[in-house]
């Protein structure tokens, strides 16, 4: 089968199409999916660059990719929830070397759910990691409620696009940071207030917020402490929580690890089918341009999602 693979860690040039990668077989508790489309995430880039070697060393050649939408092709022992021919979306193990940038991949049945009916495969493949991340942060961690104020960093990004829509649906007042060129885009998603992160210091402009959702990390994460009222909640996707700093500001800081599991995917599918949140596909690449797709995502000009069309 065709698969976009790496034989060593490195720049996007190491990500190459193999025409004869072995087709995987579904083990116990697993499902073999024929992948129609694969979402591209910053995490996949970190895997390729070797930045996650401390977590897991890849065996080469390794097929990259996590997010996917496709059709169930084979069922492993003990899997009861799916049958051959089901349309599904979910997340392959992006660190397992048998990822979604391929014609077929295997994944745990628990990381899969029925594809939202109203979405095609391209749009469905753009949803799992970013959609579940936003849901976990705003609903599970922050418990965001009507009338509360939230600052969402990186509003035009993959996660930000979902987070703004979900926060508005929950009835919150939404401020977001984005580049000036993305201001209209984030307003159309529902943002009440847009702060140009390149020319304005957000922590000087807003105060006493209930929640900050940080998808950027670094000094953006550190400065975010100043925006919250006492008892406020800061959820970060990329920052390193510091207990002392959190205590100093009397806030709760959560370093999120997103868990893409069946139950959350099903909630996400419901929101997508009701039209509460929409996927924004920025650009679609063919599988043999997986390296170009990652480079495009890393360059930071996208709004929403970059996806590989495989079938
Ligand atoms: N912890 C976890 O389990 C987990 C799960 C999923 C994702 N993540 C991480 O979460 C992060 C975001 O993911 P994503 O898919 O949303 O990425 P993305 O699509 O690349 O979006 C990032 C957004 O942040 C904006 N940005 C960059 N620097 C900024 C700054 N200083 N202030 C405000 N906005 C800024 C970018 O805007 P420009 O276009 O202007 O550069 C872009 O719109 C990544 O680091 C990813 O690895 C973590």
From TrEMBL:
Gene3D superfamilies: Medium-chain alcohol dehydrogenases, catalytic domain, NAD(P)-binding Rossmann-like Domain. GO terms for molecular function: oxidoreductase activity; zinc ion binding. Pfam families: ADH_N (PF08240), ADH_zinc_N_2 (PF13602). SUPFAM superfamilies: GroES-like, NAD(P)-binding Rossmann-fold domains. This is Enoyl reductase (ER) domain-containing protein. Residues 10-308 form the Enoyl reductase (ER) domain. The keyword Oxidoreductase applies. Keywords: Oxidoreductase.
